[in-house]
User: Fold this.
Amino acid sequence: MTPTERAVAALPPHLRRYAVAQDYEAYTPRDHAVWRHALRRLAGRLEGRAHPLYVTGLAATGIGLEAIPSFDEMNRRLADIGWSAVGVRGFIPPAVFTELQSRRVLAIAADVRTHEHLDYTPAPDIVHESAGHAPLLADPTYAEYLRRCGEAGFRAIASVEDQAVFEAIRHLSVVKEDPAATPAEVAFAEERLEAAAASVREASEATRASRLYWWTAEYGLVGPLDAPLIYGAGLLSSAGEAVHCLGPEVERVPLTAACADEAYDITRMQPRLFVARDFAQLFEVLDELGSTLSWKRGGAQGLDVAIRARTVNHVALEGGVEVTGRVAERVPAAGPPALARIAGPVLLSRGGVASGRPFLGDAVVALGGGALPERGPFDLALASGLRLSGVAIGGGEVLRLRGTLRGAPLDLPPWAILAVTPSLPSVAGGPADPGAWDRWFGELSTFAAGDGEARARAHKAASLPPRLAALYSEVRALRERGGAPPARLLAIRAEAEGFPDDWLLRTEVDELLSGENMASAGAAG
Assistant:
């Protein structure tokens, strides 16, 4: 097994299906030229601007300037710091990305941007994911922040509108990177994103957690307010942003948890950035945000957030039992809750491990003292004023469920899962056992990993004229040999003029024709 195969094999199945092989041999000489030019341009722009760990972190995580990094080499280096890397194709669901990160796994888009989008691409790519995120993992403090930030994002509750926005962003990024996309397809993708964004009723917990991640791990600055350094991956992987972010046109303010309330626009350079005092402050801000999440607070707030979200989440009861499903209502609708109804299908678990098959009906969670018998009739009177009766048939299932709250009859499902708990310590995003939920329902709710991205990649490869591809291959081979006779380079340069839209090949040849490479070419000749 290669290091990357071991990293993928270590993932649970519900995450493993999003992983893709890097297929290193499929990268073209032009792909490597894009990487080389992007990294060399970044190196020049980041000198004196990036956190000092960035340069040393590149080597420490197996990333060089001359060629696209191999995931196997990256995994050999990352293993020394307790992390690993797996390839993915384009945008993956936020819950998948954050769960991977919480497991110390870096999700790296296997694709590389086009030369038209050298400084910035709307789609995830290997320049951003590897050269942006990986280097600072060499710092244990920052690496732990990234892990904990992933955990907070994974546990935060997302809304159905979040899903619509994610699918629209993913669709737009695929279309914009696809050379075969028509103007009408691009326009439709933009309209779809605009409509999805307009449908958002409120910023969900997941949105607020993602904003914290954006303003720190993606677009963060650290150090003195008047002379900060770059550590955010979005800045480290964009030559234009690396200069712009420290210029006079950008407002730089001290980092606080309020950054989670500040929206961002991924289509333009950021006009306002947050500066952390040091990496230790990142934990202070993360803890402050975390204390507001239902994952930490539970109770009435958690139920209300989950009801508004209309997504699959899980309710944690005292004693370690969790109920996964869609929280549909709580009774009463205001004030301390007496019970909550979770719409089926529901899945029971303990400590994050499912305890059986899904139950297709609803679950009722009753709050207050009392114990439900394993089997037989029951009549429970709880301190909240809730009274429940029925017949328990095992495993939490009850028949003929009836109830009143302070004498008023309740509309309860006659066949349900019934759980009684003194309190609700936590209401968290997603299923308590994502793997079990995925086995039963995953194929119905998520896309196959990277179908659209794979099509765009195929179109991009097919759009490269064979002769242009051959010239790139020759220039790459000449570079690896240390140069070539100037006459041959000049001939290639002249032929490259026949491809006026491809400036990158001409730049590659011009570099080989520079004084330093001319000398090595002359020695070789």
In short: Residues 444-449, 516-525 have pLDDT under 50 and may be disordered. The chain has 22 helices and 17 strands. The first strand starts at residue 84 and ends at 88. The CA atoms of residues 54 and 135 lie 5 Å apart.
